[in-house]
Amino acid sequence: MGVALTAGAGRPGHQLPRRDDPIGSLTGGLCERLRLRPARGGTIRGRNGRMDALTFAATVERAAAGLSRRGMCFGDVVGVLAPVSPERFLATYTVMSVGGRALPLATSSDLDTQSAILAETDTRLLLVTADLAQTALELAERSRVRQVIAFGKALGTTPFDDLLQPSPDGSGYSPTRGLFDNGILGYERTSDGVLATLYPHSDLMARFGELRGRLDLASDDVVAVDEGGDEPTRVALVALALWTGACVVAGEGSAVPEGRQVTVRCAPEPTRVAHPHADSMY
């Protein structure tokens, strides 16, 4: 990973830092980058609306600080139960930003498989969308999960917004906090039971770099992600799109900005299907 210090557009002689690669996690340093490039911020869109990239990145940092205050430690595994959506990525990046290991559960997995992998990884916390809160609470009964945090209001859960409260002791978020210790856990059911695989930060950054070189994303791209493709690649692609200032359309039924078209899609490998403002697809 590289960190470059270059002259910014500030006062004469004033040096502004510009991070060319994520630091510590896939969104580490994203806030700073977007603040320095306000005209290239991008958005992430789902069925329930849109969020500008700077707000998304700032929410990740605030929520990461909130998880840390609640006792989450380096290497802890946190489950994520949500369809492909802005909330799924928000939860995953938040966990990695604290130095944790995100375990995104496939919504198509049966309860037995989901509860088995939660038990196998000793997961104690679940981040879920409100529509899947009841499933999450049932999984908690079947595993060692002790707390369910939901996007929105759901009986028996803690609201995600509680993580965003200001720190009472003034402690802040550091993007290098989880350096190299974070990652994503994938899983599959085998004849010997449920097998978990860790995709560490180094693997995710390698995917980030490969996609950056191959797709050549720009701020006027529209990147669509859905259930197709593997989780680590999806997570790296969305981070790259946010880093570039592109628009992300996450999940089935999410609207593309008016007057624009999808230019990059997971199908299942991330593929360029059009150039921005082109009249026709490849």
Report on the architecture of this protein.
With 282 residues, the chain is of the alpha/beta class. 30% of the residues lie in helices and 24% in strands. The protein contains 7 helices and 15 strands. The strands form 3 sheets. It has a 7-stranded mixed β-sheet with strand order 9-8-7-5-6-10-11, with helices on both faces. Strands 4-3-13-12-14-15 form a 6-stranded mixed β-sheet. Strand 10 and strand 11 form a beta hairpin. Helix 2 packs across helix 3 and helix 6 packs across helix 7. The radius of gyration is 19 Å and the shape is globular. It starts with a strand and ends in a 10-residue tail after the last strand. The relative contact order is 0.15. The N terminus is likely disordered.
* Overall form: globular
Tally of extended strands?
15
Helix content: 25-40%
What's the arrangement of strands in the largest beta sheet? 9-8-7-5-6-10-11
SSE inventory with pairings:
Layout: E1 4-7, E2 15-18, H1 30-36, E3 43-46, E4 49-52, H2 53-69, E5 77-81, H3 86-97, E6 101-105, H4 111-120, E7 125-129, H5 133-142, E8 147-151, E9 158-159, E10 183-190, E11 193-200, H6 201-215, E12 222-225, H7 231-244, E13 247-250, E14 264-266, E15 270-272
Parallel strand pairs: 3-13, 5-6, 5-7, 6-10, 7-8, 8-9, 12-13, 12-14
Antiparallel strand pairs: 1-2, 3-4, 10-11, 14-15
